[in-house]
């Protein structure tokens, strides 16, 4: 079992799930160590994502913890497999790790459900729109990092045009559509890009009009990434200090309810396209 100095969010998530499984079964760390034939400190490191666990040992762990959910165990075993270098690893050390964790989360998602109030979803931003946002970061980003962030964002967007894209549903508040980041011409091109992307069969865009008033999570950027099994779903929200990843059942339930509330208020896809077209014509 190899040791890591800086586990990725996916590696930490695997450790979290193993810890949760052990706790639910009432198995002590000492007992788990004895059953696996390792010392107590390694159990702690596995559950923190610092130390890897082989798929075979993971299945033994699940057996000792009396977990009988085969689909869940298979998904965890896949997470434990030695992974090849994802494309995002090219940016390791050059960009904040949280940005790479977002790319990895998206790459493994089976469905993405997002809600944005002020910004256009990153996966749907044009280069000029994204550049304007990165140029407004305080303190200013060095030119090299700004360019790297742009390239990373463009590479992330390729999941929507790859051979097996995840289903994508984006709820965009009217306020985000009216933000003229970069000026009218950039804003118009951004809205036209949204309309083009919404024509893809696996992409659904829905507008939440200002007239609907209050809704839960107002002002918050939310990404709900569905996994191959629901217990491994992940919520990612933005904060001033970087992305946060949430995955307790209480948190997942809360944000599913929040998205459902917003969907009840949002326009249907066809009406949303007409709404976006109407704003674009005003620019």
UniProtKB/TrEMBL annotation:
Parts forming coiled coils: none
Lineage top rank: taxon: Bacteria
SMART domains documented for this protein: HTH_XRE
PROSITE patterns xrefs: HTH_CROC1
Domain HTH cro/C1-type: 18-58
GO MF terms, alphabetically ordered: DNA binding
Classification via Pfam families: DUF5753 (PF19054), HTH_31 (PF13560)
Listed name of the protein: XRE family transcriptional regulator
Biological classification of the source: Bacteria, Bacillati, Actinomycetota, Actinomycetes, Kitasatosporales
